[in-house]
Specification:
Pfam family, one (chain A): CO_deh_flav_C
Structural class of chain A: alpha+beta
Largest interface: A-B, 32 and 33 residues
Order of helices and strands of chain A: EHEHEEEHHHHHHEEEEEEEEEHHH
Protein name (chain A): Carbon-monoxide dehydrogenase medium subunit
Helix content of chain A: 25-40%
CATH class of the largest domain in chain A: Alpha Beta
Number of helices of chain A: 11
Number of domains of chain B: 2
Largest sheet of chain B: 5 strands, mixed
Oligomer: heterodimer
Order of helices and strands of chain B: EEHEEEHHHH
Keywords (chain B): 2Fe-2S, Iron, Iron-sulfur, Metal-binding, Oxidoreductase
GO molecular function (chain A): FAD binding; oxidoreductase activity
Largest sheet of chain A: 5 strands, antiparallel
Distance between the termini of chain B: 48 Å
Shape of chain A: globular
Structural class of chain B: alpha+beta
CATH superfamily of the largest domain in chain B: Beta-grasp domain
Keywords (chain A): FAD, Flavoprotein, Oxidoreductase
Number of domains of chain A: 3
Number of strands of chain A: 14
Number of helices of chain B: 5
CATH architecture of the largest domain in chain A: 2-Layer Sandwich
Strand order of the largest sheet of chain B: 2-1-5-3-4
Strand content of chain A: 25-35%
CATH topology of the largest domain in chain B: Ubiquitin-like (UB roll)
């Protein structure tokens, strides 16, 4: 049943400061809307609970990509198309570039934003696995100022985040210090384009000879929220990928994944299937390290 | 209600609409341009795709207020208008190529396909088959099986390149 659009308010304060002032004045009353690729779907099927929306779509203060020596800073209002067109991201953060390229279709990438993908907080969202693996931080802003928290501390549960009612996500900061690391990302959905993930795995590893010196893994749909897989990382750190050891390392990785993954059952897949597929993706990554 | 100023196919107009009304419905109900079709209504099928400030968007996911100040091109604005009264209007080369190569059957996906093709060929005048498949991945067709659409896009690319050289 479609929503009655006359029952919804939408305003577009001209500045970020004005948006923050309105969020602070009436905390919890207004829902920010950027590209609308999620909230307008909810509106269409009569499931948009928020009756008052505050547009942040037009705020230039939130749409930027800035590169410094150690990191790339991305404004929350940056679209997937902006990310795909950025040469610095393509070079330094290929896992983020790949995940932006398979988020929805071209038309959705022209509207949808990185901040929206994060704040919508779906466990299946496309960009969080890469951001978790890269060790991103997020800067949140309100009329009280800003605070920066590790992205691993942002998702608190199913569709629950650390964002307070008077705060907006402002910047996502991603370290660009992964030259020489092995990088791999793969998403499994019903088709290549436009599908929402059954599961996805973003993996980074630094080798010391044939030993895994460091490994970092972010996952979609392996928990009720986007998950940094610290258990799998701990199990694999220091293991060998030498020919004689590879099978044991693969077994250790699969066992750690089976232990750490707590995927949900939903309309797109079952938890059991998600665990098996994610283990296959991890194995694919580990075997790729040998080549 | 909000008053939005919107340029549709080159004509600027002022419309009083609920700010969360979908651009799709503004185009069909307020601007009376019914060429833009509704398919899924949730951004999956691309039937309602239009160009907004030159970028392809699904008009079912754009609130009216976000189109304030924007320039929108719908399927009605793709073909050049007839030069004079009584002269036949010509199709745009993309439309002509879909027409000649069986790229359109039932017609529901066609307006969105044409605009997605327009957007694709602006970016890649000589697209590879992979680029065509990716550029149109957000546009679903239940009739053609896509092969004739891909051929239509390839022919349109050739036609447009010939015109511009």
């Amino acid at each position: 049943m479609r929503s009655d659009v006359t029952q919804y308010e939408l305003t577009a304060p001209t500045t970020l400061a004005a948006v923050l002032a309105q969020l602070a004045a009436e905390p919890g009353k207004h829902t920010p809307i950027a590209g609308g690729t999620e909230l307008m779907v909810a509106l269409g099927v009569g499931r948009l609970a928020a009756k008052s929306l505050l547009s942040i779509n037009h705020l230039k203060e939130l749409r930027f990509i800035r590169v410094d020596d150690d990191a790339i800073h991305i404004g929350a209002g940056t679209t997937f198309t902006d990310i795909r067109r950025n040469a610095d991201i393509a070079r330094d953060l290929p896992l983020l570039a790949s995940s932006a390229s398979w988020t929805g279709s071209v038309a959705n990438q022209n509207r949808g934003t990185l901040g929206g993908n994060i704040c919508n907080a779906s466990p299946a969202a496309d960009t969080p696995p890469a951001l978790l693996a890269y060790g991103a931080t997020v800067t949140l802003i309100s009329t009280n100022g800003t605070r920066t928290v590790p992205y691993t501390e942002f998702h608190l549960g199913y569709k629950r985040t650390a964002l307070r009612p008077d705060e907006l996500l402002h910047t996502i900061t991603v370290p660009r210090t992964f030259a020489g690391w092995k990088q791999h990302i793969r998403k499994v959905g019903t088709r290549n384009a436009q599908a929402i993930s059954k599961t996805a795995l973003a993996c980074l590893a630094k080798l010391d000879g044939e030993t895994i010196a460091e490994i970092r893994i972010g996952a979609a749909s392996l928990a009720d929220r986007p998950l940094r897989c610290t258990g799998i990382e701990a199990a694999l750190t220091g293991l060998s990928i030498a020919k004689a050891d590879l099978e044991a390392t693969v077994r250790a990785g699969r066992a750690a994944l089976a232990f750490e993954a707590k995927p949900i059952d939903d309309i797109r897949s079952t938890g059991r299937y998600r665990s098996i597929v994610a283990a296959n993706l991890l194995e694919e990554f580990l075997r790729s390290l040998v080549l | 209600m909000s008053t939005i100023q919107i340029t549709i196919n080159g004509t600027s107009q002022s419309l009083d609409v609920p700010p969360m009304k979908r651009l799709l419905d503004v185009l069909r109900e307020d601007a009376h341009l019914t060429g833009t079709k509704e398919g899924c209504g949730e951004g999956e099928c691309g039937a309602c795709a239009v160009l907004m400030n030159g970028e392809l968007v699904n008009s079912c996911l754009v609130p009216a207020l976000h189109a304030d100040g924007a320039s929108v091109c719908t399927i009605e604005g793709v073909a050049p208008s007839a030069a004079a009264e009584g002269e036949p209007a010509h199709l745009h080369p993309i439309q002509q190529c879909f027409f000649e190569n069986g790229g359109a059957q039932c017609g529901i996906c066609t307006p969105g396909m044409i605009l997605a093709t327009h957007h694709l060929l602006d970016k890649y005048p000589n697209p590879t088959l992979e680029q065509i498949k990716e550029g149109l991945a957000g546009n679903l067709c239940r009739c053609t099986g896509y092969m004739r659409i891909f051929e239509s896009v390839q022919k349109a690319a050739q036609a447009l390149t010939t015109i511009s050289t």
